[in-house]
Amino acid sequence: MIDHNGNQAGVVTVQAALQMAREAELDLVEVAGAAVPPVCRIMDFSKFKYDQEKKEKEARKKQKVIHLKEVKYHPFIEENDYQVKLHSIERFLKEGDKAKITMVFRGREMNYVDKGRKVLERLAQDIAPLGEIERMPVLEGKMITMIIMPK
């Protein structure tokens, strides 16, 4: 058993440990129940739980959640539309989020997959200062997808 000051009290019966906890007006908490003999500690359990929750809350505050934002392109995109979508991808990367670029082919556009790949290659070059390609462009059905993560 460990008393409320952190000193070892040695091996004590359960009744004696409970009596010591009552005298100190604290709780008797089993710390290591699998040990032989089990290890108990006299402490203020509600204060202990409060401190644990406070530490967990502080740790969560420092975590950064990374979202995956998707931007859709078509193979015959006009220059202005390309620039608008490029700026939105740059904004996502600056915020620390990943960007999923999807090149969508409709109907007869499937004949121009190479044109779509060229647009994605240009995009990868334009975005190189802010991000790097996590997943290279892959053709899946009628779409080519690529994932870019911030540097």
Individual helix count: 4
Second CATH tier, the architecture of the largest domain? 2-Layer Sandwich
β content, as a range?
25-35%
The amount of helix comes to 25-40%
Q: How many E-type strands?
A: 6
* CATH superfamily label of the largest domain: Translation initiation factor 3 (IF-3), C-terminal domain
How far the N terminus sits from the C terminus, by CA atoms, comes to 51 Å
Outline: rod-shaped
Question: Largest sheet, order of strands side by side?
Answer: 3-4-6-5
Which secondary-structure class do the elements indicate?
alpha+beta
Reading the helices and strands in chain order gives HEEHEHEHEE
Q: What's the domain count?
A: 2
Q: List segments where confidence is low: pLDDT < 50 over at least 5 consecutive residues.
A: none
CATH topology of the largest domain: Translation Initiation Factor IF3
CATH structural class of the largest domain: Alpha Beta
Report on the architecture of this protein:
It contains 4 helices and 6 strands, in the order αββαβαβαββ. With 151 residues, it is of the alpha+beta class. The protein has 2 domains: 14-60, Ubiquitin-like (UB roll), CATH 3.10.20; 68-150, Translation initiation factor 3 (IF-3), C-terminal domain (Translation Initiation Factor IF3, 2-Layer Sandwich). The strands form 2 sheets. The protein has a 4-stranded mixed β-sheet, with helices on one face. Strands 1-2 form a two-stranded antiparallel sheet. The radius of gyration is 30 Å and the shape is rod-shaped. The mean pLDDT is 90.
